[in-house]
């Protein structure tokens, strides 16, 4: 028993449209009405255009007279443009300990600042060991201090919360942080 090939996701054009009648739309978007498929194909040939099925699920299917090559090119351009405007969210992680040395804290703060300037979110984790777990307020204060120190670059997206042995907080960059940091770099290079 022949099951047929896979269902094509391609748009059907011209002779591939196998329905008795279609709702025809003209080349400038004007409604022509419900037309027999033979008449629609003849109109397409006379206008030197393709008959393209734009809404196959409609009853009857909607077909439009258009230049199919141009249509495919423009839809590919739109898809490329939408991909270009998409923004990828990257989450960087920085781990600290409650009893951190001041110099180590400054180094870690520098990393967090750099991540936020690059437009990335930062997940700050404080790891507690042994008896440190009974003093979560130390971790909370450290996270609060870090958030205050980088306040001009980012804001607290999720407040510090205890998660077993760790305390986690997420910092997100301000919406215009990337543009602002680029502007200051450009100004610094010009002088």
UniProtKB/TrEMBL annotation:
Keywords: Cytoplasm, Initiation factor, Protein biosynthesis. It holds the Pfam family IF3_N. GO terms for cellular component: cytosol; membrane. Residues 13-81 form the Translation initiation factor 3 N-terminal domain. IF-3 binds to the 30S ribosomal subunit and shifts the equilibrium between 70S ribosomes and their 50S and 30S subunits in favor of the free subunits, thus enhancing the availability of 30S subunits on which protein synthesis initiation begins. NCBIfam families: infC. PANTHER family: TRANSLATION INITIATION FACTOR IF-3, TRANSLATION INITIATION FACTOR IF-3, MITOCHONDRIAL. Belongs to the IF-3 family. This is Translation initiation factor IF-3. It comes from Saccharomonospora piscinae. The gene is infC.
């Amino acid at each position: 028993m022949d099951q047929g090939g896979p269902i094509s996701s391609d748009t059907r054009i011209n002779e591939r449209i196998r329905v008795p009648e279609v709702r025809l739309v003209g080349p400038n978007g004007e409604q022509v009405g419900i037309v027999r498929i033979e008449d629609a194909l003849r109109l397409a040939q006379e206008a030197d255009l393709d008959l393209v099925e734009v809404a196959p699920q409609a009853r009857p299917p909607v077909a439009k007279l258009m230049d199919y090559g141009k249509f495919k090119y423009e839809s590919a351009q739109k898809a490329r443009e939408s991909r270009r405007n998409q923004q990828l969210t990257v989450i960087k992680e920085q781990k600290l300990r409650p009893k951190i040395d001041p110099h180590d804290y400054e180094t870690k703060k520098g990393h967090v600042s750099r991540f936020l300037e690059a437009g990335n979110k930062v997940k700050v984790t404080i790891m507690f060991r042994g008896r440190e777990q009974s003093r979560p307020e130390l971790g909370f204060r450290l996270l609060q201090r870090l958030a205050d120190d980088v306040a001009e670059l980012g804001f607290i997206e999720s407040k510090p919360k205890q998660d077993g042995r760790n305390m986690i907080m997420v910092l997100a960059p301000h919406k215009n942080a990337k543009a602002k940091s680029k502007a200051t770099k450009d100004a610094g290079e010009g002088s």
